[in-house]
Each structure stands twice: as structure tokens, then as C-alpha cells.
Amino acid sequence: MFNAHLSAKDEMVEKFLDYAAKGDLEKISAMISHSTTLINERGEQGWTALMFAARNGHYEVAKILISNGCDKSLVNKSGQTAYDIAKFWGYKHIAKLFINGGDSNLHNLLPCTGVGDQEIYFNREFLNRMSEKRTNSEWLAAKQSSPETVFIVFYNLNLLVTSGPDKETASQPNVKLCKLNASSVEALLKKIDTTVVFLGVEKEVKKSSSSPTADEDGLVAWFALNTDEDPTECLKSIDANSFYIKRPMPDLLFLNEDEAGVTAHARSVLAWHSRYKFCPTCGSETRVDEGGHKRTCLREDCKSLKGVHNTCYPRVDPVVIMLVLHPDGNQCLLGRKKIFPPGMFSCLAGFIEPGETIEEAVRREVLEESGVRVGPVQYVSCQPWPMPSSLMIGCHSVALSTDIKVDENEIEEARWFTRQQVVDALLKAKQAVFTMPPRQAVAHNLVKHWIGMNANL
Ligand SMILES: NC(=O)c1ccc[n+]([C@@H]2O[C@H](COP(=O)([O-])OP(=O)(O)OC[C@H]3O[C@@H](n4cnc5c(N)ncnc54)[C@H](O)[C@@H]3O)[C@@H](O)[C@H]2O)c1
Ligand SMILES: [Mg+2]
Ligand SMILES: [Mg+2]
Ligand SMILES: [Mg+2]
Ligand SMILES: [Zn+2]
């Protein structure tokens, strides 16, 4: 009986995948409306319906699978996502469905750089930041006491999360934001040293069942709170499985994509507050303004109060991170810092200095760290990195020289790796000679993008 049930299900999955491969939109729509769980089922070699649609150029089928919420990040046994497959087989219009929610008309105006924003961890914005509300203190106060509002809590910048029951056994722990409501954080909000940051409102507006009152606009607001003292005692009705993430790296990488995006925003702004408590211009006390997105000096004659002073706003440090390609086109330069896990090599990276362009910073950092001279530089994609507040600007570049001389203060080792060695590392093959940074790091995307540009994985 059990086996018969299983095989009926297998048969249905097989049919579904077959219709996706053939582009039968009608059958696919009918099957999804009957059973939505089919959309992420896999067949041979780990291929999903979306991958089959992407392989055979069936735009409408890919579109309906995506609009029904299929998981675009799944990979097959060769390590390819449906996006990689669409790009490899030249179906650019399908590849563009994966970029910024698929507004393909707008993206046709730009050259295809190849990496969709959606693929980059910490990039996902599921909140509308609504910066115009930051100066509306009445609205912010009403939202802070609204039962719909979501609060996330940090203790010394360590995020409060909960874990699923499979935490101990899963290779990637199941970590979720601990989302609290106004009554749970009431006491914490009243504490004088709690920093409060308004993060935005959910883009998806919920229809309220009760009749709206004057301050009810149907918008669900999110706030982040940070305190230097253990807030556990102040919090009411928190999940028994909740705990504070002590090591941002790698633990913040275990959140889902939406929650990672909110966390990147929250943690970077809160880290700025904890490091810039006093006015950087005159050293006086400051006041938190604009929903936690500004600090204003309390000294009346302070220079920071005249004109636009960037010290009053959260800081972002731009960092270049680059994959350097060998002039033979078949190798790339990767390096390792002493602090990396054993065997791991990554792209070289460095802070942009004042008065420097992205291209100049790439050439200078590569020369400093590896002794390799770099010519052309091309921007590929970027990633907010909330440890504490960098913007990683990912580039591809081409070397003009190939001899390596590492700066031992910064890099333990740098090496040229062949395309095959990189493919082996990406696929975690037995013969791999090094390990890659995790898929959540922009370095991973830069390497994968290079391989995907012209290799048949
Ligand atoms: N997302 C990724 O895949 C990835 C990969 C590698 C590095 N990173 C991040 O990139 C950042 C920069 O890389 P790096 O450390 O190789 O840079 P780097 O090569 O410029 O060297 C770092 C040194 O530069 C100095 N420095 C200059 N400006 C600085 C600033 N604004 N903040 C801090 N130090 C500054 C410090 O002395 C520091 O020790 C690091 O924070 C690292 O966490 C991310
Ligand atoms: Mg560096
Ligand atoms: Mg450097
Ligand atoms: Mg540097
Ligand atoms: Zn001041």
C-alpha cells in the first residue's frame, strides 16, 4: 500500500517534469493548481521543472513556476541552478526572469552582466524602507505599540534567533529570526540604553480583518533593537529554542534569504550606533533621530549641525573583491588568509581608499597582496556585508603579469588555479585541491560566474 502510494507520486512528478521539458503550459498550470508541492520536486540528476523549462527555453512555463513560488536556488547534481542553465543555453530572456523579479523589458536596456541580485545573499529587500516615515515620530510611536509590528532583537549586536528541531543533525542548521511583538518587547523599549531602528514595512500589505482605526494603514512595520545588557529578562513570551548568535560568521549565513537581507540592514545600522555614540566632530553627546538613521550632536555650535555632515549618518565601507583571470583565460588567481578554514581559497579583497576609483582599488589591492599587475576591470555584482558594514563590490579583472609575490602580512598564500580545479572545488568533487567560500559569499558568485560564462558544466 505504502509503495503503491509512493510510485503514484513518482509517476506524477515524472509527468510534471516531462510537461515542463516539453513546454506544456496548460498541463503545468493544471497540475500546480492541483498540487503546489510539485514545483520543487526533482527528477534524475536533481533536475527540477524550472531547470527543464530553462534548458529548453520555455519562457511561459518558467514564469508560472516562478510566480507560484518555486525555489530558484535549488541546484542539480552538477551544481547548476535553473538560472545557470538558462544562461548557458543562451536563453537570456529566461535568465532575466531571475533578476529583480523578472522585469525583463527594463533589463533588456542593459547589457547582461550575468549575476541576478536575487542570487546574492544579504541582498534581498523584502521590506520597503519608507525613509519618508523616519521623521514622522507620531507614526513611528504608533507603530511601536501596534500588535502587528515585528521586532527583532540584538544583544551586543548578536542576533536573537530560534532553531528548528533538526538543528543538531542538519549540515546547515535551521536558524530563523526570533520575531517578537510589541508586548514582548515593552519593557526593553522603555530602557534608556536600548537603540531602536525603524527598518521599514512589509512590501506585501496584509488585509486586516478588523475595521481600520485612524493610525491603522495596514502596513506591518519592522524595528530592530540592540542593547549592551542581556535583555532576556525584559522579554516576554520568547520561544524556548531561542538563542543569540555569538559568531556572526558563519552563523548569520544560515538564515533564509529574506531574513538575511533584513539582518544585514539592521546589524549594520546598529553597529554604527554602537561605534559612534559620541559626535565624531566634537566629541559631545548625541541624540538618536530619524527612526535610528541619524545621530545629532547636542552641542549647539557644533560644525556637524551646519550643512550636510556625513558623520551624522550610518557609514558604509566600500570594499573591492575581485577574481583575477590569467591572460591565458584558463586560470584564476585565488588567495588565502591565515584566518580562513584550512584548504579554503577565495578572491582577493581590500578596502577602497579615499580618492580612488573601483578600478584603481582593484589594481592596487591585487598588486599589494599578490604582486600581480592587473589591466581591464569589469564590475559584476555587489553584496552588503554586515560585519560590520561593508559593501563588497565584485569585479572580474585580467592580469598583465603572472608571477606571484604575496604580502605575508595580509595573505598566507596565493595561487593560480585551472578552470578544472575550480570546477572540482565548486562541485566539491573528491579530487578537489581546495575548497570554495560558501555560496552566500560574493566570492563564490564571482567564481561561479566565470565558470558559467563559457564552460559546459
Ligand atoms: N564577502 C566575501 O566574500 C569576502 C571575502 C573576503 C573579504 N571580505 C571582507 O572584505 C573586507 C576587506 O578585506 P581585507 O581585510 O582583505 O581588506 P584590505 O586588504 O584592505 O586589508 C585590511 C587592512 O586594511 C586596513 N583598512 C583600511 N581601510 C579600512 C577600513 N575602512 N576598515 C577596516 N580596515 C581598514 C586595516 O589595516 C586592515 O587590517 C573585510 O572586512 C572582509 O571581511 C569579504
Ligand atoms: Mg585584502
Ligand atoms: Mg590589502
Ligand atoms: Mg587595503
Ligand atoms: Zn559635535
From TrEMBL:
GO terms for biological process: NAD+ catabolic process; NADP+ catabolic process. Gene3D superfamilies: 3.90.79.20, Ankyrin repeat-containing domain, Nucleoside Triphosphate Pyrophosphohydrolase. It is an enzyme of class 3 (hydrolase). CDD domains: NUDIX_NADH_pyrophosphatase_Nudt13. One of its GO terms (molecular function) is NADH pyrophosphatase activity. The keyword Cytoplasm applies. It catalyses: NADH + H2O = reduced beta-nicotinamide D-ribonucleotide + AMP + 2 H(+); a 5'-end NAD(+)-phospho-ribonucleoside in mRNA + H2O = a 5'-end phospho-adenosine-phospho-ribonucleoside in mRNA + beta-nicotinamide D-ribonucleotide + 2 H(+); NAD(+) + H2O = beta-nicotinamide D-ribonucleotide + AMP + 2 H(+); NADPH + H2O = reduced beta-nicotinamide D-ribonucleotide + adenosine 2',5'-bisphosphate + 2 H(+). It is found in: Cytoplasmic granule; Peroxisome. Pfam families: Ank_2, NUDIX, NUDIX-like, Zn_ribbon_NUD. Keywords: ANK repeat, Cytoplasm, Hydrolase, Magnesium, Metal-binding, NAD, NADP, Peroxisome, Repeat, Zinc. One of its GO terms (cellular component) is peroxisome. Its cofactor is Zn(2+); Mg(2+). Its EC number is 3.6.1.22. ANK repeats lie at residues 45-77. Residues 314-440 form the Nudix hydrolase domain. The keyword Mitochondrion does not apply. InterPro entries: Ankyrin_rpt (IPR002110), Ankyrin_rpt-contain_sf (IPR036770), NAD-cap_RNA_hydrolase_NudC (IPR050241), NADH_PPase-like_N (IPR015375), NudC-like_C (IPR049734), NUDIX_hydrolase-like_dom_sf (IPR015797), NUDIX_hydrolase_CS (IPR020084), NUDIX_hydrolase_dom (IPR000086). Coiled coil: none annotated. Homodimer. Homodimerization is essential for its catalytic activity and protein stability. Interacts (via ANK repeats) with BLMH. mRNA decapping enzyme that specifically removes the nicotinamide adenine dinucleotide (NAD) cap from a subset of mRNAs by hydrolyzing the diphosphate linkage to produce nicotinamide mononucleotide (NMN) and 5' monophosphate mRNA. The NAD-cap is present at the 5'-end of some RNAs; in contrast to the canonical N7 methylguanosine (m7G) cap, the NAD cap promotes mRNA decay. Preferentially acts on NAD-capped transcripts in response to nutrient stress. Also acts on free nicotinamide adenine dinucleotide molecules: hydrolyzes NAD(H) into NMN(H) and AMP, and NADPH into NMNH and 2',5'-ADP. Belongs to the Nudix hydrolase family. NudC subfamily. NCBIfam families: PRK00241.1. This is NAD-capped RNA hydrolase NUDT12. It comes from Chanos chanos (Milkfish).
